[in-house]
Amino acid sequence: MPTVVVGAGPSGIETAIELRRRGVDAHVFDAGPLGHTISWWAPGTRWFSSNDRIAIAGVPLNTVDQAKASREEYLNYLRSVVDQFAVPVNTFHRLVSISPIGDQAHDADNRWRLGFRRTLGEASASDKRTTGQSTCEGLAEAEFFVDAHAVVLAVGGTDFPNRLGVPGEELPHVDGYLREIHRYHGRRVLIVGGRNSAVEAAIRLHRGGANVSLCYHREQLPSDGIKYWLRPEIEGLIRSGSIQSYFGARVAEITPSTVTLRAEDLDDAQSRTTIDSDDVLTLIGYRQDQSLFEQLGIVSDSSSGSPLFDAETMETEREGIYVAGTAVGGTQSSHYQVFLENCHDHPRKIADHLCGTRATLPEVSERETLEARDAGLRRRIAWQPES
Fold first, then answer.
1. Contact, 195 vs 226, CB < 8 A?
2. CA of 101: how far to CAs of 1, 135, 148, 229, in Å?
């Protein structure tokens, strides 16, 4: 029976390729398109990590100008890698249930039954993979089932935008994602947040002709949470008044045309300010959809709710269920610790455990070259954890 990889992002694709190299019949399913999370980035967005850190399966990632890859370049790269290795990827198929089959101790070939339903190409950045339903409720929704010997959950950790919890947050002009920059031209845009996503959005929208304001709950931008190449520009735009800043403030209420801000730790009429706004972007981070982990009973009691797994094999407490990629980090706070670039060993660990053997070593000269390359990359990541 096949191994099913859930998640067609870079970690899921890299895991499937490694398994298929070892003779494992691995199939990939995703609720959205290939590289779903990356596909909802705003057009032209560039990775913060350098190209060698986000390349997968030993396939170099090169860009025309040697700059860090853009959203479009990386999606093109993922498509080419999938085509090169003929990885069977089933897009727009949402996993809604996962349950054990019979007596797993006596039926090792068929351990898990996965229920899927087609999303008809309608999956978007804010779609839920599941609605947190119980396994029985998920079974009622499933359109078809796949039996698998093993399952790899490479589902990432940024499924839903964090919420403000204020009146008006459900209005249609309030969004947790930056969209096509062109749509904001000439509009008054309030950005809520003060780290990389918010700062980059503020700069790009200002360049795109929007009237940008920035609301952040601290008295100044964080000293350690903004990329070095973004900080000088955002600080200059704020000092010049090109971007209006509201530090030490939180959103209290959103209406179709205004946003009311209140001073941090205060909530009286004197502490409130109302500004006009056509769009509100709540770029305050994202949280993981942990419903599949909850169904399986593998959610840790940490604040991140990360899954419980063996770091040497990537297998969870449920036999035949593995996790890979940034999914292992759960819902990460603003200080991310798990990135694609430090997850490249997950596919090998999973394949070693599933196959019961380690990968065949290449010839000595090739191995020495690869080891030198990998050692250099590990050193750079250690000294500069996020490029």
1. yes
2. 13, 13, 9, 52
Q: What are φ and ψ of residue 331, in 5° steps?
A: -85, 110
Kindly write down the DSSP assignment for every residue of 317-374, as one continuous string.
SSTTEEE-GGGGG-S--SS----GGG-TTHHHHHHHHHHTSPPPP--HHHHHHHHHHH
| CA–CA distance, 63 with 131 (Å, rounded to integer) | 39
Q: How far does the chain reach from its first CA to its final CA, in angstroms?
A: 40
Q: What is the distance between the alpha carbons of residues 5 and 313, in angstroms, rounded to a whole number?
A: 16
Distances (CA, A) of 137 to 4, 98, 130, 223, 257: 21, 11, 10, 46, 40
Segment 122-170, tens digit of pLDDT = 555 444 333 333 334 455 589 999 999 999 999 999 999 999 999 999 9
In whole angstroms, give the CA distance from residue 125 to residue 123: 7
Sketch out the chain's domains with CATH numbers. 3-160+286-383 (3.50.50.60), 163-282 (3.50.50.60)
